[in-house]
Amino acid sequence: MAEKKKNLSSGAEKAEKLTRKGNASAKTEKNTQEKHKKTVKNSVEQDKTVKKDNKKSAKAVKSQKHVKGEKVRKAKKKRVMSEKRAQKLKQREEKRIARAKLVAEKKQARLERKLAHKEKRLERIAALKEKRAERREKRKERKDMIKNESKQARRKRIESERKAKLAEKKAKRQAYLAEKKAKREHALKVRAEKRAERNEKRHAPGFGGWLAAVISLGVTTLALGTVVTFGWLTMDNMQADMASGYTESLYELNSVIDNLDADLSRAKASSSASDRVRVLSDIAIESETAETILERFPLDMQMTEQMSSFINKMGDSAKQMLYTVANGGELTASQKKSLQYMYETNAKIKEELNTLVSTCDGKDLMQAMRGKSSAIGDGFSVIQNNTFETPKGIQDGPFSDSIKKTNPKALKGQKEITAQTAEKLAKEYFKDYKVSEVKCTGEATGEALTLYNVSLTTPDGEMFVQLSKLGGKVVAFDSYKDCSDKNFSVDRCIAIAEDFLSSLKLTGLKAVWTSENGTTCNLNFAPVQGGTILYPDLIKVKVCEERGIVTGMEGLSYVLNHGERSLAKPSISEAQAKASVNGNMEIKSSRTALIPFDGEEVLCYEFVGTLDNNEYYVYVDAATGEEIEVLTIIGTAQGRALM
């Protein structure tokens, strides 16, 4: 090989070297290109991997956000569903409670009705037993009286009873005839007024019938004039007859009042039992006659209300006195005072009626019949307004107007409050009334008490409240919204009033009197100490029977008088006290009571009973056994007061 190499020329060597060098260079370039291609390929693959990783990362983030949002939505939906379910469960529970409450109330009401029915039945049985016992006692007394009565006394008694029955029968007959006559006169009056109204409504024909009316006018004028004239003459005669009848009634009433004046004067002066029986019988009969005559007058009832009420009570009092005297008893001090009061009041009526009779004529009665101002109306107005004082009876409950002037015992030791405190207390006391505005409007000062006047604004209207400056206690309040319907019973009204008084921290009180005035229930509460009613400490409450809320309250007597009493034990028994009561009275209940009498407080036995369909409250001194007070229930225009 060495020899071959040596034999080559230099040119061939150079060409070979160049060839080898070119091959090496090409190989190197090829390697370089391959390396570049690999590098580029690796770079592209790396970019793809990065992009793929980025996509995966973005997708993972998006997936995480979606999962998180889905969890939030699910949690929110779950919370909403939970609240709705809780609300439904709450409503279901409230309905269940309401149903249970309604069932309990119905059950309680049913039990109360059953208990009330049982109590009424027991009361009826007891009342029947008591009536039978009283009838036996009366028969025994009558037998004893007849046994010990002389023939002459018996003859006089029978004759007196016969005369009284005849007189009563005659009075009833006269009343029936008078009522029948009054009804007939009223019917005639109404008929005449309707006829006059029809005549006034007649008018001329319209324009279309004017010509025919003119043509027929001459033919009908005579007949029409005759009919109208006859009708008006008949009506004038009828009214004249009615006026004549009223004039006769006025003279008759004046005569009866004159007779009553003479009989009342004799009843005061008489000391003979037989003479008093006769005189009192005449007073009872004449009172009924006067009341019947008074009802016939063509006047508004308000003009004769007090006079009619006085005459009615005068007759009842005369009957009560008659029974007392007829049974051999003596008139009590209170009965003698009533007799004096009746005499003085009747004398005033007599004086006014005498003046009226001397000045009144038929023209005045015609004016009164037409509802116009007249002398007879003015005369009865004078009697109504200037003659009568408040009668001694019960309208608002026993001793409802007995306010003793003393220091306010219920406020002893209390501190004075400011006007601002009074406003806060008033709002607190009446928070159930939805008070929106409270304003203290000033002070009111009396002999023993200073009060703040506070005005309250509620959805039902204004309320007026008085609070004591000492202690800030509610002394009185009133509201002004009317009650038109009756949705609550008297028993329910009592419970409402008790709750109201408890909210004012007034406890230990008992309802001692209830009466209904339309749709308002009036209640009197009094403290009870050891079973004794303390009448000087009364609180009056007014409840609306439509809304079932307290709309008024007055507790001045309680504030002035209430305090612990030192009550002595009765010196006589209840049976001994009952012996002092009229034997003809049917006693329904009894209890001990502290009453105001002649400026003092007296412990008494209180007996509630009926006599001749009238209800009485009789008070017998528990120390002496003397009957010291007799009160009777006075009927009102709204109805009879109930106990």
Describe the structure.
The protein has 643 residues and is an alpha+beta fold. The chain contains 13 helices and 13 strands. A hairpin with a 2-residue loop joins strand 11 and strand 12. Helix 3 runs antiparallel to helix 4 and helix 4 runs antiparallel to helix 5. The N and C termini lie far apart (162 Å). The N terminus and C terminus are likely disordered.
Short structural description:
The protein has 643 residues and is an alpha+beta fold. Helices cover 60% and strands 16% of the residues.
Chain-wise SSE layout:
Elements: H1 2-7, H2 10-148, H3 151-201, H4 210-269, H5 273-295, H6 301-326, H7 333-359, H8 362-369, H9 375-386, H10 419-429, E1 437-445, E2 450-458, E3 461-468, E4 474-479, H11 490-503, E5 509-517, E6 520-529, E7 532-534, E8 539-544, E9 549-554, H12 556-561, H13 574-578, E10 586-597, E11 600-611, E12 614-621, E13 627-632
Parallel strand pairs: 7-10
Antiparallel strand pairs: 1-2, 2-3, 3-4, 4-9, 5-6, 6-7, 6-8, 8-9, 10-11, 11-12, 12-13
Distinct helical segment count: 13
Along the chain, the helix and strand elements come as: HHHHHHHHHHEEEEHEEEEEHHEEEE
Poorly predicted regions: 1-6, 202-238, 390-394, 635-643
**Total strand count, please?**
13
Strand percentage lies at: 15-25%
Radius of gyration: 51 Å
Secondary structural class: alpha+beta
Q: Give the overall silhouette.
A: elongated
The description of the largest β-sheet is:
13 strands, mixed
Mean pLDDT: 75
Helix content: 55-70%
**Head-to-tail CA distance between termini:** 162 Å
